[in-house]
Amino acid sequence: MNQERENVLNGDFDRAVYDAVPAPIMVVDRDVVIIDHNQAAGELLASRGGGEGQRAGEALHCLHAGETDQGCGRSPVCPQCVVRGSVESCFVRGKVSRRKARLELQGPTGPAPAYLLVTTAPLEYRGRELALLILEDIGELVELRSLLPICARCKKVRDQSEMWHNLDRYLSKVMDVDFTHSLCPDCAAELYPRYVDPPDKKLS
């Protein structure tokens, strides 16, 4: 038996794959207490001062988790939480769930919204019913689909941090799009009239 096969049987390979997934993955119980997580989730939780043994809302510093002494899942608005509802649905229905969510999280400079794609999947391990909780940041997509403030004069756009960017640089940043520059027929005719026929002449 080769070494790679031994690693798979020993679980080392599974753990390596689990940690290689770039999306934060957490193993949670029915109360959304974090039992385990992959490397991406560990980095996310560490950046927010949270970790294993906490409920997800507490680890991520959801504003509503701090509204009561009992923590995550105990405030009046917690029954409407997409994360908690998705985990509960996973246990009740035993099926994969994917839903979009807007969470209010406490950031270093104050409350800030987080837009997430929340995926849950049932998991049974050593006779214990658990769930995989996967959180993917879709904030850039939400921002692009919402109204984007644009300067009426220079056409720069304003992001959620109140910073102004050239449109091509902004789209390149949030959509990983590369631009190449050219001239439309109108501008070419205006800038180089000796070399380009006016658009209206071409139409006649």
Describe this structure in words.
- It is a single chain.
- The model is unreliable at 4-9 (pLDDT under 50).
- It contains nine helices and seven strands.
- The protein folds into two domains: 3-138, 2-Layer Sandwich (Beta-Lactamase), CATH 3.30.450; 147-203, no CATH class.
- The strands form two sheets. Strands 2-1-5-4-3 form a five-stranded antiparallel sheet, with helices on both faces. Strands 6-7 form a two-stranded antiparallel ribbon.
- 34% of the residues lie in helices and 24% in strands.
- It has helices at residues 3-10, 12-20, 39-47, 56-59, 82-93, 139-145, 167-175, 185-191, 199-203, and strands at 25-28, 34-37, 97-107, 110-125, 128-137, 157-158, 164-165.
- With 204 residues, it is α+β, with helices and mostly antiparallel strands.
- Identify the CATH architecture of the largest domain: 2-Layer Sandwich
Order of helices and strands: HHEEHHHEEEHEEHHH
Kindly report the spatial arrangement of strands forming the biggest sheet. 2-1-5-4-3
Low-confidence segments? 4-9
CATH topology of the largest domain: Beta-Lactamase
Structural class comes to alpha+beta
Quaternary structure classification: single chain
Instruction: Provide a count of the helices.
Output: 9
Q: What's the count of strands?
A: 7
Inertia-based shape = elongated
Name of the CATH class of the largest domain: Alpha Beta
| Overall pLDDT score | 83
Question: Main sheet, how many strands, which sense, barrel?
Answer: 5 strands, antiparallel
